[in-house]
Design a protein that fits this description.
mainly alpha; MetI-like fold; 0% strand; flat; membrane; cell membrane
């Protein structure tokens, strides 16, 4: 008995050929500028470059100096506090807002626009707005004291012990709306039959969210986590607009440290070393995400 030979599949290399050709410029830019620039930065971080790059190798001296500088240590501590709290609060608040929006409330479009609007503003604008709001003379503290509570105090931007929390407030105000929209998109992708089955089985809503819905939204949470984390590592504009790193160096962050050493102190070697440490931080975030998304077991 003879059968028909199976049709040969087209060579995978030539599938979607037009789109692959169109992506060549983007690939060249990514490799030439981003990858090439990163290698160049790491290379010159081992030199004693000052105003201009120069091939005067000093080994790990720049890194040793970096980690012995109190300003850099403060910036890392601030980034850790800001980053951990931003991840926790933005995910929790964003998900809770998305869960409320998912209840088919009235004026949903208006509320969604209001919550997302701060994300459309630049970090400089957000920083200046919250600098005014947290100003002790005419901000929240000044308004409440004018109402009779003379002992009320709320001036985080002027207190070196809590200044990073004042920056955190502004960051959450701007970024939580985006997290809410991402979470809402994930919730809207949940099959309606799952909600019906949970109601029929008498499962409380909070348990449905915690044990059924959230595990199903794993890809959304991972993507959101990467977006938030990448924004945390490069936070700069918000700090400059609100405090310029003050009081003293109390609100210093790594991105500002890099900028100041490269363009103000004219010490490229030290700036390159700090940039390399930031690059390493981004790699620590991106590589696990890429593995979870593309290297793990395929999902249906």
């Amino acid at each position: 008995m003879t059968g028909h030979a199976p049709a040969k599949r087209p060579n995978q290399l030539f599938r979607n050929l037009n789109s692959k050709i169109a992506s060549i410029p983007m690939i060249l830019i990514a490799v030439g500028i981003f990858f090439g620039g990163s290698v160049w930065t790491v290379f010159y971080s081992f030199t004693n470059s000052k105003l201009l790059p120069r091939l005067s190798f000093v080994g790990f001296d720049q890194y040793e100096r970096l980690w012995n500088t109190s300003r850099w240590i403060i910036s890392i501590q601030n980034l850790a506090i800001y980053g951990i709290l931003t991840l926790i609060f933005s995910l929790v608040i964003g998900f809770l807002l998305a869960a409320l929006m998912d209840q088919k409330i009235r004026f949903e479009n208006a509320f969604r626009t209001i919550f997302l609007y701060p994300f459309a503003l630049s970090f400089i604008v957000t920083g200046l707005v919250w600098q005014w709001i947290l100003n002790p003379e005419f901000g929240i503290q000044g308004i409440i004291r004018s109402l009779g509570w003379e002992s009320f105090r709320f001036d985080p931007l002027y207190d070196p012990d809590i200044v990073i929390y004042g920056i955190l407030i502004a960051g959450l105000w701007q970024g939580t709306g985006l997290v809410m929209c991402l979470m809402l998109a994930g919730l809207r992708g949940i099959d309606e039959d799952i909600w019906k089955a949970a109601r029929v089985d008498g499962i409380p809503m909070w348990r449905t969210y915690l044990f059924i819905v959230i595990p199903m939204m794993r890809p959304v949470f991972i993507t959101t986590l990467v977006i938030i984390a990448s924004g945390i590592v490069k936070v700069y504009d918000l700090v400059v607009a609100q405090t310029s790193g003050g009081p003293g160096n109390a609100s210093e962050v790594p991105a500002k440290y890099v900028y100041d050493y490269m363009f103000q102190a004219q010490n490229l070697g030290q700036g390159f070393a700090a940039s390399t440490m930031m690059l390493l931080t981004v790699a620590i975030i991106i590589i696990p995400w890429a593995y979870l998304e593309f290297g793990g077991k395929k999902r249906g």
